[in-house]
Amino acid sequence: MANEINTIGVLTSGGDAPGMNAAIRAVAREAISKGKRVMGIKRGYAGLLQEEIYEMHTTDVADIIQRGGTILQTARCKEFTTLEGQKKGADICRQHGIEGIIVIGGDGSFRGAQKLASLGINTVGVPGTIDLDVSCTDYTIGFDTAVNTAMDAIDKVRDTSTSHERCSIIEVMGRGAGFIALWCGIANGAENVLLPEKYDYNEQALVNNIIENRKKGKKHHIIINAEGIGHSASMAKRIEAATGVETRATILGYMQRGGRPTARDRMMASMMGAYAVDLLCDGKSNRVVGTRDGKLMDMDIDEALQMGKSIDEYEYQISCNLSK
Ligand code: ADP
Ligand code: F6P
Q1: pLDDT at 146 over 70
Q2: How far apart are CA 299 and CA 185, in angstroms?
Q3: How many CA atoms lie within 13 A of 97 on its CB side?
Q4: Exposure of 72 by Cβ count < 10 A (0-12 exposed, 13-18 middle, 19+ buried)?
Q5: Radius of gyration over every alpha carbon of the chain, rounded to an integer in angstroms
Q6: Which of 43, 175, 252 to mutate to test the pocket of ligand 2 (most atoms within 8 A of CB)?
Q7: Distance 324 CA to ligand 2 centre (A)
Q8: Exposed, middle or buried, 170 (CB in 10 Å: 0-12/13-18/19+)?
Q9: What is the pTM of this model?
Q10: Among candidates 10, 8, 9, 14, which has minimal Cα distance to 105?
Q11: Which ligand is nearest to the CA of 305?
């Protein structure tokens, strides 16, 4: 076969996500089972440029499927966004005999993979981000765990909010995307959910809603606010002043990125990681792995990066209907 791959590199890049370890394990074990050499690259593209590269054996990925974070560490690397940095990265791959690289991360990381592919290193991207904001795929590794973590935390805030008859604004992660917020809005039965894709900044409508709910006898009022809107603390002050209802802000923050991956994340990470290896072994490059309608698939990175992703209108409508 032309361009047969003998050595596969793997790195994690961008924000970490629960399930990344399961994906690393799957890459290493699928590749080794096919007689390939596997090189772990630490700290994403930063580690590649620093040549933080080591050979991975089956035992190096033992006992990690259940762990959050990434054993390879992760980083954001400015140098790799320059052509000079990318050429240096491709040369380092060649020096270490790495013919193909699997990049586990989000859209930004895939842009790096795209550049490496154009410089002759075969690449496959595996979507790993809690934000679910990779357009070409229905699922990204880490989302399910992050939503479950946020959901549990919001349930707890709700308990104390009810006891004190307060309004709580709870800010969840997601960068510019509202997927985590929307899922929590529905799963936690929030009174309001503010999504960057939908929010019209009409705070008076929120105020009216809180006052109406008080009249109806509701003892708490949960507002899920997406990070992309932010400013939860100042919003809480304004809402308290306008409604007379004690209002507190809670920013869940980085706890959403950690913790033991759920079964869904372990499963998706294992399947996507192994599938990425199979693509490289089949001579494919410049591809991204994903799922569509519950099935594994892959597509060209250039095409994938052109796509957009929006909030499901029906889910959003239901979140509004059920919160009344
Ligand atoms: P994510 O992969 O989660 O979207 P980032 O957007 O922070 O995270 O990207 C992770 C890393 O990918 C960046 O720090 C950089 O090293 C690399 N990267 C991002 N954009 C590009 C680009 N246009 N060209 C090359 N590398 C890029
Ligand atoms: O992409 C995952 C994510 O946790 C986003 O939800 C958040 O906006 C961002 O990473 C935070 O990144 P950093 O770790 O650089 O603060």
Answers
A1: yes
A2: 31
A3: 10
A4: buried
A5: 22
A6: 175
A7: 32
A8: buried
A9: 0.97
A10: 14
A11: 1
